[in-house]
Amino acid sequence: ILATYFCQANYKNNFYSFLLKNIKKSNAQVFQDLFVLYHLKNKKFGKFVEIGGGNGETISNTYLLEKKFKWKGLICEPNTLMQKKIVISRKAKLIKAAITNRCKKSGVFYENKDPYQSSTINIKNNSLKKIKVNFMCLNHLLKKYKMKFIDLIEAKSVYQKGDNITKCLREKYGSTINSSEIIEIAYDLQAGNYID
């Protein structure tokens, strides 16, 4: 128990130090970009999907990742005012659909006075206008844009069965070699890092 406490205290101290050192670089609402960079050891050339991207810069969880760490990805933002700003400030692919729990060719999106309060729900009749947009679920979004992410629950199941985890991950990544991501996931599964 004492070792666990010291490991957790050490983690907190290391993360807080990282946060304080990099706090001025962050554009995210509550430092999600720094959280990702800390855990992925300042990884370069990653992938992201940002849902509700706002203007792509202010309180953006992915702005720093794209600009300084060369990540590529998708920004989903149905608000037309915000879309114009994203096109100017970002290289990421802009998805104009609303990401919801199910796909639908057309649905209503309410653009509010405060664009960060825009939604598929008319909150307190605060909308400036309602527009028709496509609704897309996350699964179809990832499939359409060929964004490959590893399902850790599936990987954990393969590992628990005693099957070859690196072979499974290579198939999921479409790789013929054990990349650094595959090795890291396999190691983390063996170390028990993905326990419910």
Give the gist of this structure.
The protein is an alpha/beta fold and 196 residues long. Helix content is 43%, strand content 18%.
How many strand segments? 6
Helices and strands, in N-to-C order? HHEHEHEEEEHHHH
Report the average pLDDT across residues.
82
- Provide the structure class: alpha/beta
- Which strand order does the major sheet show? 1-2-3
Q: For the record, give the distance between the C-alpha atoms at the N and C termini, rounded to a whole number.
A: 19 Å
* Approximate strand percentage: 15-25%
Approximate shape? globular
- Global Rg: 20 Å
The level of helicity is: 40-55%
Largest sheet properties = 3 strands, parallel
How large is the count of helical segments? 8
The unreliable regions are 1-6
List keywords for this structure.
196 residues; alpha/beta; 3-stranded parallel β-sheet; 3-stranded mixed β-sheet; 43% helix; globular; disordered N terminus
Protein model, in words:
By secondary structure, the protein is an alpha/beta fold. 43% of the residues lie in helices and 18% in strands. It contains eight helices and six strands. The protein has a three-stranded parallel beta sheet with strand order 1-2-3, covered by helices on one side. Strands 4-6-5 form a three-stranded mixed beta sheet. Helix 6 crosses helix 8. The two termini are 19 Å apart. Mean pLDDT is 82; it is low at 1-6.
Summarize the SSE layout with pairings:
Elements: H1 2-22, H2 32-39, E1 47-51, H3 63-69, E2 72-76, H4 80-89, E3 93-95, E4 98-100, E5 104-112, E6 127-137, H5 138-144, H6 152-161, H7 165-173, H8 180-191
Parallel strand pairs: 1-2, 2-3, 4-6
Antiparallel strand pairs: 5-6
Helix pairs in contact: 6-8
